[in-house]
Amino acid sequence: MPLFERRPTGAAVCALLCSLLSLTSVGAARAQTASPQTTASPWSLRQLVGADDRLKLSATARIRFDTIDGQPRPGFNASDDVWNLRTTLFAEYDAGPVRFGTELYDSRAYGGDARTPISTNEINVAEVVQAYAAVDLDAPFGAGTTATVQVGRFVLNLGSRRLVAADDYRNTTNGYTGLRADITGRDGLRAIAVYVLPTQRLPDDLPSLLDNAYGSDREGSDTRLWGGVVTWNGLFGPVGAEVSYFRFDERDNETRTTRDRALDTVGGRIFRPAAGGSWDFEVEAFQQWGSISAATAPTAATLDVSAGFFHADVGYGFDRPMKPRISLRYDWVSGDKPGQNYERFDTLYGMRRAEIAPSGLYNAVGRANLSSPAIRMEWLPTPATDAFISYRPLWLASRTDSFSTSSVRDVTGRSGAFAGHQIELRVRHWLVRDALRLEVGTLHLARGQFLKTAPNAPDTGDTSYSSLNVTAFF
Questions:
Q1: Which of 123, 189, 292, 338 is the most buried (most CB within 10 A)?
Q2: What does the alpha-carbon distance between residue 228 and residue 287 come to, in Å, rounded to a whole number?
Q3: What pLDDT sits at residue 234?
Q4: Residue 31: which pLDDT band, with cuts at 50, 70 and 90?
Q5: Quick one: pLDDT band at residue 358, thresholds 50, 70, 90?
């Protein structure tokens, strides 16, 4: 079967073709930056209201159409379409030296039913995800040093973002309530420490989610995350290094039962940032230990945890038109095996879209029970456009555990270890510089022996997933 012979629904194909046609015509007419939005939008909300320099004010509105044919996860529709809408409003006032900030997220989804994979990853209505105060200190440890202390509710992106991140592709984000401290020293040294209570997005029952019902999010001492990251950007030349440690604890509360995770995760990373005309690389590894309940029942046995994660990539950026960069990478994430220890790695609140696979209706491949090399090509087709294509063969690190985040499992291990071939393409284009961005993505999963023969693998054939995003920045 040709790679893209299986197609998404007719509406998705039409949307995809129309967007590509728009990209081609508009790209030839404008010369704009393809980098992420970092400068003021010409539709700036701050300028519209005439705010002074002490007030930061911004907003976004995003609509995304997701479609999938050949759902690889059991228990869901073989084919599905969902509309995701996300609106954000951010404000921060600098009273010097104290800053006060707040951010509202309104995330909704439409078109799903009881067999659509809808969760709090897609829906969180009218929630204040940030409400904080921050104090900025100049030279607290001598000339050339700075420090910031932040308290309240906020989002986090720490280190490589593989353990703690605010995922932008997902329709909702992760919020935390607590304390954060940043210290910047001399010679590129930076340390970040946090003690937070991760937010539980509510409501989380399917009927309420399908109705886009409102529920106030909660946090409590029953779920805690603390630790930090130390980064040294000047290890030697452009090469940097990083060490991190996080402790995560959870226990049951009056409305939710848990696996009672008590996890320690320590990691190290060495990296050289990408640049035109030079090699770049990154190597990161985590070791995880602690305890977890075998099930959510109060009488479930407690298991010792011994899990790990490894990522490596090497790339070269060509100093040529369209700025091509090619990279080779490998990810290994431990899975559980028979025995007294629990060996499935927990990625906590890490991102996946930037390097593994999309979430949304697909959401089948993440940092769990995975052994996967990959090759990726990135380039700038026009000054207004960026694109990448990647190929990733997928194996299970453990044949007896669920494959990655798919929930497909063969406890006997007889279905083999090869899950399939994943090919992904994404194109982003500024329709209006720093104000309106189009994103088109498509992914094909050609299933391997495991996803064809595992006892609970859906008999839905190969998987095609596509998404169309339009985001306005204000």
A1: 123
A2: 15
A3: 85
A4: very low
A5: very high
pLDDT bracket for residue 39 (50, 70, 90): confident
Going from the C-alpha of 364 to that of each of 135, 314, 359, 361, 367, the distances in angstroms are: 41, 25, 8, 9, 10
pLDDT in tens, 177-234: 999 999 999 888 999 999 999 999 999 999 999 999 999 999 999 999 999 999 999 8
Cβ proximity of 209 and 203 under 8 Å:
yes
The angle formed by the CA atoms of residues 276, 280 and 284, to the nearest 5 degrees, is 150
Please report the pLDDT score of residue 167 as a whole number: 87
In this model, does residue 8 exceed pLDDT 60?
no
Q: Which of 289, 294, 321 is nearest to 305 (CA)?
A: 289
Which residue type sits at 461? G
At position 234, the amino acid (one-letter code) is: G
SS3 per-residue string spanning the chain: CCCCCCCCCHHHHHHHHHHHHHHHHHHHHCCCCCCCCCCCCCCCHHHHHCCCCCEEEEEEEEEEEEEEECCCCCCCCCEEEEEEEEEEEEEEEECCCEEEEEEEEEEEEECCCCCCCCCCCCCEEEEEEEEEEEEEEECECECCCEEEEEEEEECCCCCCCCCECCCCCCCCCCCEEEEEEEEECCCCEEEEEEEEEECECCCCCHHHHHCCCCCCCECCCCEEEEEEEEEEEEEECCEEEEEEEEEEEECCCCCCCCCCCEEEEEEEEEEECCCECEEEEEEEEEEEEEEEECCCCCCCCEEEEEEEEEEEEEEEECCCCCCCEEEEEEEEECCCCCCCEECCCCCCECCCCCCCCCCCCCCCCCCCCEEEEEEEEEEEEECCEEEEEEEEEEECCCCCCCCCCCCCCCCCCCCCCEEEEEEEEEEEEEEECCCEEEEEEEEEEEECHHHHHCCCCCCCCCEEEEEEEEEEEC
Q: Which pLDDT does position 37 carry in this prediction?
A: 62
